[in-house]
User: Fold this.
Amino acid sequence: MNEPLVELERVTIRFPDERPVFRKPAAWIRAVSDVSLAIMKGECLGLVGESGCGKSTMGRAILKLAPLYAGNIRFMGEEIGRLGEKAFNRYRPRMQMVFQDPRVSLNPKMTVFRILSEALHLNAAVEKTAYLEQAVKLLDLVDLRPEHIYRYPHEFSGGQQQRICIARALATDPLFVVFDEATSALDVSVQAQVINLMKALQEKFDLTYLFISHDLSIMAHVCTRVAVMYAGRVVEVREAAALFESPRHPYTKALKNAVPVADPEFVKQLGILKGEVPSLSDPPPGCPFHPRCAYAEDICKKEVPGISPLGEKSWVRCHLHEQLWNLGKLGNRKELS
Amino acid sequence: MYSSNPARHTPASGAVLQVADLTVAFNTPHGRAGILEGVSFDLFPREILALVGETGSGKSVTAKSILNLIPAHLREAGGRVLFQNKELLSLPEKRLRAIRGRYISMVFQNPQSSINPVFTLGEQIARLINLYLPGRVARIKKETGCSRKNAVKAVAEEKLKEVGLTDIERLLKLYAGEVSGGMAQRYRIALALLSYPEILIADEATSALDVTVQAHILQLMKNLCQNKGTAILFITHDLGIAAQICDRVAVMYAGRIVEIAETKEIFRNPLHPYTSGLLKAVPKPGKDEPLSFVPGIIPDFVNAPQGCRFYDRCDRAMEICRERKPESLNIGDRHVVSCFLYGSGAQKR
Amino acid sequence: MKARADSYDMMARKVSRDHRKVRWFQLRRLLKRKITFLSLVIMVVTVTVALMAPWTAPFPEQGRGAVNLEHRLMPPSSNYLLGTDVYGRDMLSRVIYGARISVFGGAAIVFLAALIGVPLGLWAGYNEGVSEIVISRTVDLVLSFPAILVAMIISILFGAGWFMAIAALLIGWWPWYTRLVLGEVLSAKGMLYVEAARMLGYGKLYIIFHHILPNIMTPVIVMMLLDLGPAIIAIGLLSFVGLGTQPPNADWGLMVWEGAPNILSEWWIAIVPGFAMFIVVIAFNIFGDALKEVLDVQQ
Assistant:
């Protein structure tokens, strides 16, 4: 029925801690550990977590901007994780990325036309002579005017710049778009505009999205399903609204409690999560969250939790999730860590 | 509906900081850019006032102008900033330096870049402790008979514990680049509070931090305000923060304060079209309704419009809004708004 | 469907036309300020006159070195507009011929040093690893010797003359560009637009030349313009010690030295070439500054 467009199977990505030239690195940073995730065709999957959790790395790995250490990545059923640069080229038009800070993701010395042309180069259906016309069409899609085509990026506002980035992503006629913190650098009112545009485009062109962000608040507005990451592992995957209403992982709950809600009636004691994010070069054994988890038990310190399915395409990685749920520790009550 | 006795906004007494008609312009190669236009607000002791605005609203410039941190040759400033009955804008640099850090402290967005990278954290806090708390150090020396160095260290440990830092012995030996953002920002706040300042200005102090770390720091600030009576001016673009810890909210747009009210009041009853537009654009976690936004962009500061700067983007704009600038009016109980929809200039709808 | 396509095409063409107008205005802006225009004029005049030396110099043979002993040490007059030197040669002609070596030589050094140094810096900076180590150490090695010393040694080994002088100075000059570029490339590499280009599948060479190079050019151009003065002087310095330009050829540096003993009495012999150096260097600097402002499209 509905098939996964992108599949990650037990993906592990690591980076050397330093890069000595003449010998092997001594320490490795495990940016992503043993992640399995399926992104279904037509959905918008959210990937949320704090800094250093590996979400950006994961997005980049799909587009071959980060090296895969172990595991498989499949696109439309075809294995792409281990392909060389040249072999991967035929997949490039099909998957694109919109980066975080539009002020630096657009070359300041290139005109908008040049930037879009670079991307159009990958679109086999468009001839060189038609680049200008196609570029104007793309700008129109993101609500920018044709006069803007020969301007430089710095002549635009943040929201407009990000829309140019979206136009660039669409230029290659992709099936899959990754948004890496694409709205984080924008003002609230502009963010809303960009998100509305994203959703409209998804409908119009039947696209599949991976939306990466640290901001839990916008997840439900944008995504159908959301995955929560902590220290390189995915700890929970749920329907967007359900994730917020009834988190099943203690970290998700802590994250939710920490987000300040723009509603003074909803004043709550902001949940304080003790401790610091673990070092990724020397992660604690077992569940990576156990040093900070209020409910950690012995098993959490020894074994990495397996995947516990919770229903259609939802699951959680926690030894104690069943008990915690039954005890009401994860619910909407004032109960905090 | 709102013409019930609107009076011109006048600075209140009892305020620890009074900003009246602050106007700042920058001289750019393109001409004179009017960045701040008649910004007025008061800060009372024991309260947290949120200064909310988006990029280009002028909130950072406001904060920096209070402490006169913008080089004089780059700007022209008008209006009054009163602190302890002293006019800060015209104070000579030497007297200002005595106030900065001691009575009015400031914490910035990026903690690592506001800590001197050349000295260890221990060295920096020691210097400030010797400067602001010599009596404390002397007392500890007398009581425990230890060396001056150890007395200073004891004070440092106490102060850093207050902001929630742990493993302080090790921390003091580190440099700015070796600690995480959260720890650095907490350290920076501790430094800012050493002198028991009357006012703490936090300029996007949590924007660069993870949300769980931010929760810590926001809680810390709230405790500070309640326990030590420090007045906090919290500058942010995040309405969530404003809602959760601030007592009053001042909304800025394009260099002007468009609305000030108590937090509950402003969320329940936003008067200015920009405020209500902003509130509608804020995502509500867990909901998936489409977001509304405020169309348009901020006006050019060099060729600023003659009338209200929000005119182009306002869905309730009137003729008068294009021609003249609205004044600040008191509506009801401590609710100030700057808009022609209210007051004697209001048209019958 | 067709109508829509047509309208897009029309929009695009209109934009093209408008854009060409804008470019023209930008060029005019560069020359708007009088002093920039003046600098440009000086530069163009200097180059043209030097190029056309056989026709612009009033006494070309004297410019090339022929002596004219009856008219030695004459002050500026109607015949000899800038006076004559120790050998009676017309100063104006000497200066014009001197410009050929001084200005073109200086420009050659700077230009070639950049041509060698910048690509090396780009390569080392973008690739890092072994290339970076090898190139960096080479740069360090060459820079540890004073450029003049290196030039002198090479001149001694391979002979004197202006060509050797330029080649020798070049060897000591290129590393400065590599070092400048290296730092810039390391920071440009980390920019998101580079990552975006990689995502689009573009290769190393394309990224280096189309994404990195344009963004590091400004400091390189500034360095080139500021180096021109020292290059001209360096050529002259080598001539002082007899290793550069050999008489009867002359460059401005050599002429200043030749005129130094008589500076109190026949001041024009040393001052005229010195002043020429001064004017040309200033003109390049002023024009360079203006160019930098225009190139730096970001405010």
Chain B has twelve helices and 13 strands. The first strand of chain B starts at residue 7 and ends at 8. The longest helix of chain B spans residues 211-228.
